[in-house]
Amino acid sequence: MHRRRLRRLWFLALLFLCPWPLPLLHDAFVPAIRYWMLGSVAATLGLLEGAAGPVFQIVLLLLGWALITTAMCWLIAFLLARASGLIPDRTALLASYSAITGLLIWALTFEPYHTPFGHAVRGGLLQVLS
Amino acid sequence: MTGEGRTKNKRGLSLFASTALACLAGLAVVTSGANALATPRPACEHRDALRRPFFGDTHVHTTFSFDAWGQGTLGDPHAAYRFAKGETIGIQPYDRRGNGQTKVRLRRPLDFAVVTDHSDLLGETRICRSDDLPGHDSLVCRVVRRFPALGYILVNGHVYSSERPSRYSFCGDGGALCLDAAAEPWRITQEAAREHNDESAACRFTTFVGYEWTGMPGGNNIHRNVVFANDVVQDFPTTYIETPTAQGLWRSLIDECIDGREGCDAIAIPHNSNVSNGLIWSLVRDDGTPIDASDARLRARLETLVEVTQHKGDSECRVGGFGGEDELCAFETVRGARMQDTARVSASASFEAKPRVYTREALTAGLVEAERLGVNPFQFGLIGSTDTHLATPGRVDEDEHLGHAAGIVSARFGPPPLPDFGAFNPGGLAVLWAEENSRASLFAAMKRREAYGTSGPRMVVRFFGGWDFDDDLCGSDELVARGYAAGVPMGSELPERPDDEQRPPAFVVSALRDPGDGGVPSTPLQRIQIVKGWVENGEPREKVYDIAGKASDADVDLATCTPRGMGHDQLCSVWRDPDFERDQRAYYYARVVENPSCRWNQWVCVRAGVECAAGDIPDGLEACCDSSLPQTIQERAWTSPIWHTPAQGGEAP
C-alpha cells in the first residue's frame, strides 16, 4: 500500500515536473504533460481540419513521445518506490514529499523548461501548464 | 461678343482641349512603350546605354506571410522597402507595442527589391490576427495564437506540403472568407511598391509588385516568385491551394495578366531546386503526358530567371557530379532532398538527390529538350536572393547574419546564440544589367536574362560571347562597347557563326572585386571559371575551365577571420572553347570565385570567444566545435549562360 502510494506520488510529480528533450522536432525540454497537451492540440486540429502534409507525422511524434516519456516517468516512479523499501516507510514518505516539494518550488520559481512552442523560449511550470 | 460667337469660342476651346488631351494621351502611350507603365515618369538622370549593374533582392517575406508572422515578424512591405533603401528597422524580439528590439540596417542600400509574400494563407494570416474578422476564433487561429510555433508547423505542413491542399473550414464555402480577407494585404503590397518606387529623375530605388506561389507537394519544393513589370497586376495572386501545379500558375499569369490585362506583364522565378527532388524541372504536363513545344515555349517565356542561391542552400550543381571534377559544387549544400527535410539536416548527413535537381542539370536537360522539341524549356538566367522572413531584403553579409527566421521556430524570441541552422546561409543578391534604375529598364533585363547572381558580395561581372573578339580585348577601354557591338551579353544566344569565321566562339569575362564600401569586409578574387554544358550522343556533359586566376593557397585566419594570401582586385580573360563543335548545342556561364573568408557561423564563434580545445563553449554554440560545419566560404558569382545553337538547330523561345 505504502509502496503503491509512493509510486503514484512520484509518477504524478515526474509527469508534471520532469523535463524531457524532444527528438527530431526543435529544441524542447518540457515535462511529459506538455507533450500530451501539444499532441492533443495537434490531433484535434488534424481530426477536424484534415491531416494533410506532415501533420499526421507530427501528431504521431508528439503523442508517441508523450507516451514514451510517460512510460519513463512510470518506470522511474516504480524504481523509486522499490528503492524506498530499503528505508523505513515514514522516512521514505518524508523524503519523497520533501524532494517533490523541492522540485515543485524549483519548477515554479525558476525557468527550467525550454518551451519554444509557446510564447517564451524558457518558462516555469505555470507557463508549461498554461 | 454675340451668343453665336461665344458658342463658336466654346466649341473652339472644346476642340482644342480634346485635341490636346488626345495628343497627351498618345504621347503617354508612345513614351511608355509596349509594357505600358500605368503612370509615365520623368527620364532617369543617370542613363548608360552600355548598362550598369543594379543589386537587389527578389525574394522577401514580411508579416503578411504566414510563416514569417508565425515566427514573430511584424515588419510589413513598407518596412521591408525602407530597410532596402538603407533605413533602420526593428526586428525580433518585439516589445508589447510591437517595436522591434533588434535594430538592423543595411550597410549598403539596395537598388531594387521585390516583396514576395506567400499568396497562400494571405487571408488566413489576416483573419487569425484581426479580432474583428469572422474566423478569428476558429480552432486553427486559436492554436496559432496560443501555440505559435506548433501552429507554424501544423499550418505550414497542412497547406504548403500537401499534395491536395485545401482551405481550412473557417474560410467558408470555396474559401470565400479567406480570399476576401487576402484582398487587404494584397492591396497594401501594391501600395507599398508604388509608394517606395522612386519615380523622380534620381531613380535611386525601384520596387516591383510580386508574390510567392508556394507549392510543395509531398514536401518537394516547386515554389515560384512572381514579379510584375509595373502596377498593372492580377486582381488576386495565384495560390497553390486553388492552382496546385506550375502549369496552372503559368496559365493564370497568361490569362489574368499577360493576355488578359492590357499593360500587364510578369515573370515567374523558380527557387530551391536543390530541395525539389527534381519536381521543379518537370517535363510532363499536369495530366502526366510529356510536354510539347508550346509548353516549352510558355515555360521559357515566363521563367526567364532562376534563383541559383538563397538562404536555404545553393542550387548550382551536384556535389560529386560528373566524377567530382567540379570541387566547387560543394558550396552551401543543404543535405536534404526535400524542403521539409532541410530544417534539421547536419552538414554531414547523407542523402540522395534524384537526377535533374540542380540548375546546371536543368540547363543541360534543356539542350536535350531543344533537340527534341525545337524549343529549350530551360533557357533561364541566374540570380541570387535572400528569402528573408524578417522583412530585411539584401541582408547577406556573413559577419552580420541573424538568420532569416525561416525554419528556426524560436526566432520569435530573437535570434538564438547560433542564429541559424548550420546548413543555411545569409542568401545572395540578384544583379541586373540595365540602362537605368527604373522598372521598365530592370524588368527588360530580367526578361532578356541579362542578370547574374552572387552569394552576397557585390562583385561586378561582365560576360560577353561572340565570334570576333580580339584576344587583347581585356586591355581595351572599349571592352563593353565591343562586347555589345560584336557579341552578345549574358543571357543571350550566340549569333550564328559568320561563314568566313573558322575559329571557335570567344567569351570575355571581366570581374571586379567587391569594393567593400560601407564597412563590408572585402575579399580578393581568386579565379574566373567558365562552365560549359553540352549533350553528346544523348548524354549530358559538363566541363569547368579556369580562365583567369587559379586555385591558390590563400586562406583565412580562423581566429580573427582575416583573409590571408594573394588575390586579385580584378580579373579578365578572353577565352575560346578548345572543345567547340559547331553542330553541338551548348551553354556557357561564368563563375567568379573569391578567396576563402569566414562563414557566418565562424564569425559568431570568433566573436563569442569559443575555444573548442579548451572546452570553453557557451550554451547554444556547441556547433562551433562541430567539425562537419564549414568554417569558411568561397563567395562567388554566377552569370546567366550564353547558349550556342547550331544553325537551323531550332528556334529561340
Give a structural overview.
- The complex is a heterodimer of chains A (130) and B (653).
- Chain A is 69% helix and 8% strand.
- Chain A has helices at residues 2-17, 32-49, 55-84, 89-109, 125-129, and strands at 19-21, 29-31, 113-114, 122-123.
- In chain A, β3 and β4 (122-123) form a beta hairpin.
- In chain A, α1 runs parallel beside α4 (89-109).
- Chain B has 653 residues and is of the alpha+beta class.
- Chain B folds into two domains: 55-454, no CATH class; 460-596 and 634-644, no CATH class.
- Chain B is built from 14 helices and 25 strands.
- Chain B is globular, with a radius of gyration of 25 Å.
- Residues 1-38 and 649-653 of chain B have low confidence and may be disordered.
- At the A-B interface, α2 of A face α5 and α6 of B.
Helix content of chain B: 10-25%
Number of domains of chain A: 1
Helix segment count of chain B?
Answer: 14
The tally of beta strands of chain B, per DSSP, is 25
Write down the oligomeric state.
Answer: heterodimer
C-alpha termini separation of chain A: 33 Å
- Kindly name the structural category of chain A: mainly alpha
Distance between the termini of chain B: 66 Å
> Can you tell me the number of structural domains of chain B?
2
Spatial shape of chain A? elongated
Structural class of chain B: alpha+beta
Beta content of chain B comes to 15-25%
DSSP summary: helix tally of chain A? 5
Q: Characterize the main sheet of chain B.
A: 12 strands, mixed
Topology:
The complex is a heterodimer of chains A (130) and B (653).
Chain A: H1 2-17, E1 19-21, E2 29-31, H2 32-49, H3 55-84, H4 89-109, E3 113-114, E4 122-123, H5 125-129
Antiparallel strand pairs in A: 1-2, 3-4
Chain B: H1 3-32, E1 52-60, H2 66-69, H3 77-84, E2 89-94, E3 100-104, E4 112-115, H4 122-129, H5 139-146, H6 148-160, H7 176-196, E5 206-213, E6 224-228, H8 246-258, E7 266-270, H9 293-302, E8 305-310, E9 313-314, H10 321-324, H11 359-373, E10 381-384, E11 429-434, H12 439-447, E12 451-454, E13 460-466, H13 479-486, E14 487-489, E15 506-512, E16 525-536, E17 539-549, E18 555-557, E19 562-564, E20 570-576, E21 586-594, E22 597-598, H14 600-607, E23 632-633, E24 636-639, E25 642-644
Parallel strand pairs in B: 1-4, 4-5, 8-10
Antiparallel strand pairs in B: 1-11, 2-3, 5-6, 6-7, 8-9, 11-12, 12-24, 13-14, 13-15, 15-20, 16-17, 16-21, 18-19, 21-24, 21-25, 22-23
